[in-house]
Design goal:
This protein has 273 residues and is an alpha/beta fold. The chain is 42% helix and 16% strand. It has eight helices and seven strands; from the N terminus they run βαβαβαβαββαβααα. The longest helix has 26 residues. The relative contact order is 0.15.
Amino acid sequence: MRKNVLLLFSKLPEAGLVKTRLTTLKDGVFEPEVASALYHCMLFDVVEICMAAFDQLEAEDDAYELVISTAPAADVERMRKLFADAGTWPRPITFIADAGPIFDAHYNDAFQQCWDDGADCILSMGADMPALTVADVKAGFAALHELMDADEPGIVLAPDQEMGVSVIGWTRETAFDHTGVFYNPDGLTVLPAYIQKAREAGLAARYLPPVPDVDTMADLMHAITLVEALSYCAPFDGNTPPWRTANALREMGWDEVRVPPNSLHDPREHIDG
């Protein structure tokens, strides 16, 4: 039986410390309390979606564990309480703290803790992805298992919408880490930095469907349309929808995106007449 870990990186949803690019503190439009509340909804939605995927994946007789990594260490108990206060979750959650001088090191530390605890493969992601689906989680682990079954060291990754990576993972036998990815000395963004590292190490790599995250107002506009579509489609395709995020956007009056007409398109006079 393989031990599969889904490693979820998350800060506490505190006003002024999360999603600040959505707020008036930077170039967004929301008050910090609103942005942090929206992130709170995204976090809980992502956790529920991952747990729903585990229910389907465990039919294959593997073991799956959800690990939430946060920083600093003092926030671990506060994160645990955040979930406990929300009520009973269908599956247990392990909470850890990641540490280091830069994000690369934080990521490496969290991965190492999971390896030390017996993980056979790790699929990691952030919590700001309300468009994540059960199928995305299943596809990530399926790709990892294909690498393991072939005894082939390698990584799996899903890009986001801004030259970065929203999902990344690899197997225990793969000699790989995050050093030089988020703080790349050559100025590479995260996606090409991971590919460069894999190429230099001669590793296999499996490409997963893109999963957008939410950092900027433009990201949020895209996410609003996806959340609406996922929520409507859920009864028909059996997916677990991001219902908390959908409700929050509706309460904020941000559940629709409308744009003014513009002429920034290819000429069509010769087609339309």
